[in-house]
Amino acid sequence: MRRTHLYGFHKQNAKMVEFASFEMPIWYKGIIPEHMAVRTRVGIFDITHMGRALITGAKSEAFLNHVITNDVSVLTPLSAQYSVMCNENGGIKDDFVLSKLEPEKFLIVYNAANRQKDYQWLVQQSKAFDVQVEDVSDNVAMFAVQGSKAQQTLQKIAEADLSKIERFKCGWTKLAGVDGFVSRTGYTGEDGFEVFVWNTPLSKSENAVKVWNAILKAGEEFGIEPCGLGARDTLRLEAGMCLYGNDIDETTTPFEAGLSFVVKLKKDSFIGKDALAKQKAEGIKRKRVGLKILEKGPNPRPKQEVWKDNIQKIGYVTSGTFSPLLECGVAMAYVSIEHATEGGTVMVKVRDKPLKAEIVKFPLYDPTKYGYTRQK
Amino acid sequence: MRALDYEFPDKLYYSKEHEWVRLEDEEAVVGITDYAQKQLHEIVYVEIQSEDSEVKQGQTMGTVESVKSVSDIFSPVTGKIIKVNSELAESPELLNQDPYGKGWLVKINLSDLKKDMENLLTTAQYAEYIKTMET
Prior knowledge:
The structure holds two protein chains of two kinds.
Chain A: H1 7-13, E1 15-19, E2 22-27, H2 31-40, E3 43-46, E4 51-56, H3 60-67, E5 79-86, E6 92-102, E7 105-110, H4 115-126, E8 132-135, E9 141-146, H5 150-155, E10 170-175, E11 178-183, E12 192-197, H6 206-219, E13 225-227, H7 229-239, H8 273-282, E14 286-293, E15 305-308, E16 312-323, E17 328-336, E18 345-350, E19 353-360
Parallel strand pairs in A: 3-13
Antiparallel strand pairs in A: 1-2, 3-9, 4-7, 4-8, 5-6, 6-7, 9-12, 10-11, 11-12, 14-17, 14-19, 15-16, 15-18, 16-17, 18-19
Chain B: E1 2-3, E2 6-7, E3 13-14, E4 19-24, E5 27-32, H1 34-40, E6 43-48, E7 54-55, E8 60-66, E9 70-74, E10 79-84, H2 87-90, H3 94-97, E11 106-110, H4 113-119, H5 123-134
Antiparallel strand pairs in B: 1-2, 3-4, 4-5, 5-11, 6-8, 7-10, 8-9, 10-11
């Protein structure tokens, strides 16, 4: 099993699980306190297990516009976008964040579970273009610092003025004296940064450990918590963000998943464009929705069926959990389009017991009180 | 007795599925062990068969959910459920806070204790079982 630079810290402080062939922390104090730390203060996650590749060369923008669905041309240096890449049928190969580092240099950060698949796909598709694709996953440590106190925490150890880095922008800065790169992105719904420590292979982990410890120390006064994969999952679910393999995969399209904002059909040809244009013209038959369980009881879980009025099966749950913030069961589900109406009431079948649920919009929390849109 | 990070009270019997049994004449009080609650962590929901249900040793008698996971609860004895801990519906976290006390699950009227005992472990045996599992 693979480990990250922070394995020693995790092993000592967390319950460990296997995830995408990495030995990773699932929780330290517990999913609920870690979740609440991020929703109300700040938390730090080790996300070094994610995949990272650099795309360089004169044709890198043209290549990326061919392989991904979003419009790469709108990116200026030191800015980022969320996007997906699709197969020819419009099915999602992966979702990721793409950052433009320089005019001819891009960084793509994709799911840990898809490291091999994505890299091979990018290399294969790049052959027709004058570009290089380099897998830098193993040379970079990556942490997410998330929550309303993330900027104040990180600023204490950063040389650059982080208030100048807006959401989905990035910048180079020293962090605790170490060369780093930060982007104002994340997967919790909160404001926050993703921190990259470059040139840090596992065999030379000092800089990664130094930055991690410095962030924890800087965040002490704000009540920072180290957070595991458990809280990462409950946070992204409340925020309405997809987990690849659960909520999206090669059989779901960005339109069905509610990700039409990353599909730019006005672009010249890109992989999956024809299938997606056809689906858009014909209309989707099912859609990803949020569910909130209206009664006290068991929590919704993946693969459970969604029914309308106990007579008609209309879909199934793809992610489900107990929401630490809302203190009730919450889920993502695909339901047939005629029933995918906000405010509609459906049933989730949990071990033969029908549970009443409401179709709700994402994020599941009040965006004026929580998340990066909160009113200060 | 204490074993590793866990507490296993004496005078209880244990199942390999991590339930404990406290014998009181013809009845048994049943709960999940300290080991089980620490593995599950943050229990947010408990569901047990209703009173008067017949349960069999080794068969499912309920479900316990943590934030992330769903696990079956197996009856460590055979008999009839005569009382369910009603506090657990409102406060499932009692299983974490006090697994051998306020977090008890059910009271069962025993029908074949002699046979049940063949599969139950003493405190020392269960502690040994946990040690081999953890290493």
